[in-house]
Amino acid sequence: MRPLKLDLQGFTAFRQLTELDFSDLELFALVGPTGSGKSSLLDAMTFALYGQTARLGALGLDALISQGERALSASLTFEVGGVTYRASRTKGRKQAENEVRFERLDEDGRWTGLNDGGSKAISERIRKVVGLDFKTFTRSVMLPQGEFASLLHGNGKERQMLLGELTGLDHVQEMQKVASERARDLKAESQSLNNVLLSEYASVTPELIAGLRAERERTDAEAQQLSETREQLQTQVNRLHEAEKIWRQHEETARRLSTLQSRSASIQQGATRAAQARRVAGVMPLIDAAERARIAHEREARELAQALAAAQSAAQQSDQAAAHASQAQAQEARIPELEQRAETLREAEADAARLKRAGGTPQTTHPSPLPWDEEAHHAAREAAQKVEKIRLERVQLETQKVSLKAAQERFAAEQKLHAAESDELERVRREGTTAKADLAAAQKNLEEAKLEGGLASYRPHLHVGQDCPLCLQTVRQLPQAPLADLRALEQKVTMLAATQDERRNRFSELRGQLKSRETWLSEKLAENTDWEAQLAQREQDLRQLESHITGDPQTEALRLLAGLAARVRAAGSDPAAARRQALGDIQKIRQEIQNTAKALARAQGDLAAANATLKATQSSAAQRQADWQQTQQGLEAALTALQLNVPQARAAALPENEITSLEHAARDYAAQVAQLQQAVAELERQLGAFPFVPAELVQATRDLSATDAALSTIRERAGSLAEQERAGRERLERKGEIESRAAAVAGRFDTWQALTNSLKANEFQQFLLAEIEAQLLARAGILLHEISDGRYRLALENGDYVVQDLWNAGEARGVKTLSGGETFLASLALAIALSDYLAGNKILGALFLDEGFGTLDPQALEAVAGALESLRTQGRMVGVVTHVESLSERLPSRLLVTKSVAGSSVQRLDN
Question: Starting from the edge strand earliest in sequence, which strands make up the sheet with 83-92, in order?
Fold first, then answer.
């Protein structure tokens, strides 16, 4: 996988749309101040591909959205196997705003979407195309070089721990943990099953079941014998119960006969009373009829008086209703006048509504009102709104002009500061050159002084005319005594060297500041130029809009509203209420006419009904009086024949049902006596054939109860034995199942225990790590040999890493004695070897290295640059995240990440 282009916006420090083209990059440095966003570019790549980052994982991704922004987007265009793809993701602060897209560039230059299914399916499709999962990608494409320096210098245990983390072998520990927990669970289960067998099933045997079956069969035989005895006793008890029933019926019937005969006198008295009541029964209806006729006559007399009063009241109400109807008809003449006023008020109400919609009130006035024109008012109001909008826009424009002026003043100040720093840079360069020359002269003077001082030290050994002990020539003249102060000269050299270093550091500092300020001035110049052009265009647009507006539209709208308000005031303060009052009066008059007409009709109907009722009541009262006189005459004739008066007849009278009851009682009494006498004779006949002895029944009942109790006990015993036999048989089967299960669990425990022992950290995992470390060491040795021009090779001696110097007869040196550049080469070889190992058979087209060093000496810098150049020639795009300026300047290209108030940006610089 080789990246071609990265687009991101709203991603951490990159607020604005940022495009990064990798298509023609092979070896480059990614540089910038701490916190500028270098790591965010790498995070954006992993987010576009996998939807997560190495620092945050897949959770808490809202932290990637730039502060104040609603969403972020990241898109990575990359090449795999000659085919170009593009993966894009959008992350919002809400779940619904998240989106993932995947596309392929076809031969015709068009992008084809590969977005079938949901986000998970698309992410899985991206992973398959890249060929690496997230963890492998971050470990094989983006290499944390500092960790490999630790791997290089660490001891055996530290290397194994770090290799386990980098290669993901920590899952072996998880496997061992799972196997251990499984073995522990199986051991506990096996112990539990064996404990159950010992505590609950130790006594369960086939012999126990056979003994229970034999005892149950003996109990069943005893129960059968007791059952036959019980049947015989039950037959005897049943026969005695039948005899007892007949004996008890005889006693009961004799008692009832005696009781019935004691009632003979009262029955005879009732028969005499019934005969007397039957004699006066014929006259009682006449007494009742005469009483009813009298009551009806008195009731009709009262109803006649009430009907007469009702007829008189109805006549009065009919006269009053006629008078009210005449008054209501007189008010009907006002309706046309009220309707005309309501129509006039309706127009005034419509004007009031127009006035309210237009934003005016009845109190709106103007010295020069205009007649109301709705279209003219609408046009004037729109023009007034445009004027207000133009005013607000001009206020904003003036504010922007002030901001632009402040920005231009700041730009001018930065230009002056840039010029001053440029002058200072030139001055520092001159001072540095002068300091360098002065230092060289001082160093030369010091060397000459040291030489002269050394020669002068031989002066006591020289004599004119004799041979010099050094050059063996004849001494012609003695050298002068040393005049220079060496200590002063050395102090001067030290001071000049410090001055030169200070000038050099100041020169580097000023050069960095000038480069950053030049970039800022270039961006701000273009930004201020665009800003000024936009303000000029807005000024021109405002002037053009102002030229289209004539007069004072606000005043014209007010004059039109004043004309309409005057028309509304002429109709009264509240035309709507006045119109409702007029319509209410019309409705009230019409309703009153209808109500009085209905009341008159109702009163006339009530009068007719009252007269008809009075006439019917008068006829009914006369008829009731005649009926009462006739029934009274018939009653008096009947009482005379019986020689009784009305009170005597009422005293002797009984209700018909009571008379009938007394007569039936006399007849039933005679029949019951005869029936009971016959029943007593029949029961005496039956007892004579089967005599009954109560003591015999009591004894037979006791024998039956004792037999039932014994039978119940023996049957319970038989049932208990049967249940014990069944439960024992089930427990015997359960015991067999538990024994089989315990054997199976024991076998599984042995398997998991063996796996636990094999996966322990000091066995299987160490074996895997040793194999991986051997492969890494072999690959890293070959790679180190290639990138060091055949000089170095990695090896393992006595459990520690060493580097063999092939240019020095294969001398082995401990890695802790390596220089900074040599350490970088060795750890780089390890990192790339692990990258190839993790990628498997996938060809990696790009590597991003965090070199992890602060400074490099010139020799190490040359070695590192050569190694990186060698990597590039192997067909990989290599990006180095570095803070070493001298290293970044050696690489062909640099991506400079800078941060400002507007956010971070990336600038490409080619060396």
Answer: 18-21, 2-9, 71-80, 83-92, 99-105, 111-113
